[in-house]
């Protein structure tokens, strides 16, 4: 007989809310919340708690609220599981609760906002620039200017909260995006400050002067929890948990930027603070995320469903190693320890007990590949090489899309139209990078590579 998760039974105090999070998903609960709990000097007297807001669905807020914000983090290694109750979430809220978000950001004690949404949820234009003509941004501008309806985007909700902070005179604050975007601090600045300035130039100036945008590189494989995870946790721990999270033992967090209102001592949990984050971003985006995207498309074409299965396929592993060789030629900064990093990735990917589903990774390829494949292909061509391994990643995406009538992507309509057109490879490549799409030899290379990746299953 298992017992419900609650703070009174476990003797876990509610930490004071000093952090806000947007995007209450599994990765946040395996990463930022875990780091925050492990940053405490005295676990019995925590000083940093999160108020976390959901993304699209309020379900997780409801589940966590019913168990005092607590959940079980299952660290799944090859030789067994380790269970830990995480108590860093003091409040779990639905995204639509913008009034509570305003209250929290207007409080002087709130020091930082972290973000885990998706790359697409920033709604930026070309070059990660603020673009008021993007439909979601234009609609958000209308809502914020007129007050006709609550803000519906991450940037819109954050702008509403920052406006409340400005009016309250609550002082500076840090915004810490934790999404797989290059220069994600800059991307967040463009999305939030651009929107703020478009709504009210005075608010835009306040954001510029009082809000620090911290760039980060984050890493912890956190697959979708299997249906039986809750039953396994109950059996292993004796506690009922309707919102457990499964993750790998490895974790990494690299940050660069200022925290004008203070922060948890995340370095106590292993976080690293650096002056120049770009080399660490590229290492992670190209080697880990790039390999994931390559495996997601090439692996599914060969009938595999998880990262571990795909990596065990010699053809898929050879493709990953070849891509890594190309990418590493352009990762030259000191301190990256590339050989060690690659060996660690192979071990992590091969973990047979982490079911990281390729279908999950394959979502939003039109957003991910411009950051994971295009920079390496472009750099290889600039060095006088054809970039075949990076081109193979794009070719796998092209082959994966061939003939599909549905696709999970923020640009799904454009993808389906391009896929059905007469010059489909060039059209699809144009969604990733217009300059590459204009180069006939690149289109020809991707066309030939895609032709050799015929699917073995749908």
TrEMBL record:
Q: Which keywords label this protein?
A: Oxidoreductase
| Domain Mannitol dehydrogenase C-terminal as annotated: residue spans | 276-433
Q: Which domain of life is it from?
A: Bacteria
The record ties this protein, via Gene3D superfamilies, to: N-(1-d-carboxylethyl)-l-norvaline Dehydrogenase, domain 2 (1.10.1040.10), NAD(P)-binding Rossmann-like Domain (3.40.50.720)
Check the record and name the SUPFAM superfamilies matching this protein. 6-phosphogluconate dehydrogenase C-terminal domain-like, NAD(P)-binding Rossmann-fold domains
Q: Which residues form the Mannitol dehydrogenase N-terminal domain?
A: 18-267
The UniProt catalytic activity note for this protein reads: D-mannitol 1-phosphate + NAD(+) = beta-D-fructose 6-phosphate + NADH + H(+)
Q: Pfam families of this UniProt entry? A: Mannitol_dh (PF01232), Mannitol_dh_C (PF08125)
Q: Does the keyword Oxidoreductase apply?
A: yes
The name of this protein is Mannitol dehydrogenase family protein
């Amino acid at each position: 007989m298992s017992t419900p998760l609650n703070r009174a039974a476990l003797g876990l105090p509610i930490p004071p809310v000093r952090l806000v999070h947007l995007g209450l998903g599994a990765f946040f609960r395996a990463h930022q919340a875990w780091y925050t709990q492990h940053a405490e000097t005295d676990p019995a007297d925590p000083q940093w708690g999160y108020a976390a807001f959901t993304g699209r669905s309020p379900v997780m807020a409801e589940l966590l609220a019913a168990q005092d914000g607590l959940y079980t983090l299952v660290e799944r290694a090859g030789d067994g599981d380790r269970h830990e109750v995480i108590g860093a979430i003091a409040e779990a809220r639905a995204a639509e609760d913008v009034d509570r978000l305003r209250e929290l950001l207007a409080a002087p004690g709130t020091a930082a906002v972290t973000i885990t949404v998706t790359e697409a949820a920033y709604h930026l234009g070309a070059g990660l620039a603020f673009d008021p003509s993007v439909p979601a941004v234009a609609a958000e501008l209308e809502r914020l200017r007129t007050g006709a309806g609550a803000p519906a985007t991450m940037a819109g909700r954050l702008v509403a909260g920052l406006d409340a902070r400005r009016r309250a005179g609550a002082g500076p604050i840090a915004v810490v995006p934790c999404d797989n975007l290059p220069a994600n601090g800059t991307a967040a600045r463009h999305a939030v400050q651009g929107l703020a300035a478009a709504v009210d130039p005075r608010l835009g100036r306040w954001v510029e002067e009082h809000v620090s945008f911290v760039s980060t590189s984050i890493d912890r494989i956190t697959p979708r929890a299997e249906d039986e995870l809750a039953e396994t946790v109950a059996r292993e721990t004796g506690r009922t948990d309707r919102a457990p999270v499964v993750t790998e033992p490895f974790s990494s967090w690299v940050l660069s930027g200022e925290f004008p209102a203070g922060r948890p001592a995340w370095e106590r949990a292993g976080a690293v603070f650096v002056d120049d984050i770009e080399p660490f971003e590229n290492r992670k985006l190209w080697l880990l995320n790039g390999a994931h995207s390559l495996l997601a498309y090439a692996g599914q074409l060969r009938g595999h469903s998880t990262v571990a299965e795909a990596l065990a396929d010699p053809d898929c592993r050879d493709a990953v190693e070849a891509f890594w060789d190309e990418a590493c030629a352009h990762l030259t900064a000191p301190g990256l320890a590339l050989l060690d990093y690659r060996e660690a990735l192979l071990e992590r990917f091969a973990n047979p007990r982490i079911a990281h589903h390729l279908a999950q990774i394959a979502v939003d390829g039109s957003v991910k590949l411009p950051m994971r494949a295009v920079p390496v292909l472009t750099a290889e061509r600039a060095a006088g090489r054809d970039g075949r391994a990076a081109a193979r990643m794009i070719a796998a995406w092209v082959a994966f899309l061939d003939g599909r009538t549905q696709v999970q992507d923020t640009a799904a309509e454009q993808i389906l139209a391009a896929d059905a057109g007469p010059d489909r490879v060039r059209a699809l490549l144009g969604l990733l990078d217009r300059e590459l799409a204009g180069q006939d030899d690149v289109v020809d290379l991707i066309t030939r590579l895609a032709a050799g990746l015929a699917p073995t299953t749908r």
